[in-house]
Amino acid sequence: MSTAAERLAAVRDEIASAPGGADATLVVVTKFHPASLVEELAAAGQRDMGESRHPEAREKAAQLAHLGLTWHYVGQLQRKKMRQVARYADVLHSIDAPELVDALEGGESPHEIPVRDAFVQVNLTADPGRGGVQPDALEALAERVEASPALRLLGVMAIAPLDEEPASAFARLATYADRVHRIAPTARWLSAGMSQDWRVALEHGATHLRIGTAITGERPTTP
């Protein structure tokens, strides 16, 4: 049975050999997995780790601070927890409302948190209850993030809908990335693709791949 380090090496090789993969950033999503697995991946050279549950992410980041990892928060953000998440997460993949930016800029000591890299998350579904800004509000949110002294806009992020072919969804996302790039010329990154669809995401310009189970294995039944 393969280890996480062996699966990491295999996925890295696949990404490197895929068109557009040589320069892609691999973010290994370790949600529900113990800190010991993160340590195993770090020992194998993996530096970018993704989490999507705030309490768990905060604990891992604190416990493993000595490893000097880059933590990516890929889950939905809440205004009331925004500043807490930003204290340990180096990259925020899911900015989807101006209120989140407001929360990060506020507080009695607004400069106590370092400037964080950020993606604007776009909702690729017709369900307004799903995470992500609606496409018709994308430019306004991107302008808000770009103007914030607390954030550095990297580009856009999205999750492919379950009821649509990934190729169609990611092709649409690429057009949204172009719209943001016109607003902020340095925001040229695209966070898309997970274990089941990262190859398709690369074909449509993904620069950051958020891969979990293909590397970590199935999640434990209890966190």
What's the structural blueprint in terms of helices and strands?
Layout: H1 4-17, E1 25-29, H2 35-43, E2 48-51, H3 54-63, E3 70-73, H4 82-86, E4 91-95, H5 98-105, E5 116-121, H6 138-147, E6 151-157, H7 166-183, E7 189-191, H8 198-203, E8 208-211, H9 213-216
Parallel strand pairs: 1-2, 1-8, 2-3, 3-4, 4-5, 5-6, 6-7
Defining key terms:
223 residues, alpha/beta, TIM Barrel, 9 helices, 38% helix, globular
Give a structural overview.
This protein is an alpha/beta fold. It has a single domain (4-216), classed as TIM Barrel (Alpha-Beta Barrel), CATH 3.20.20.10. 38% of the residues lie in helices and 17% in strands. It is built from 9 helices and 8 strands. The protein has helices spanning 4-17, 35-43, 54-63, 82-86, 98-105, 138-147, 166-183, 198-203, 213-216; strands at residues 25-29, 48-51, 70-73, 91-95, 116-121, 151-157, 189-191, 208-211. Strand 2, helix 3 and strand 3 (70-73) form a beta-alpha-beta unit. It starts with a helix and ends in a 7-residue tail after the last helix.
Q: How would you summarize what this structure contains?
A:
The chain has one domain (4-216): Alpha-Beta Barrel (TIM Barrel), CATH 3.20.20.10. The chain is built from nine helices and eight strands.
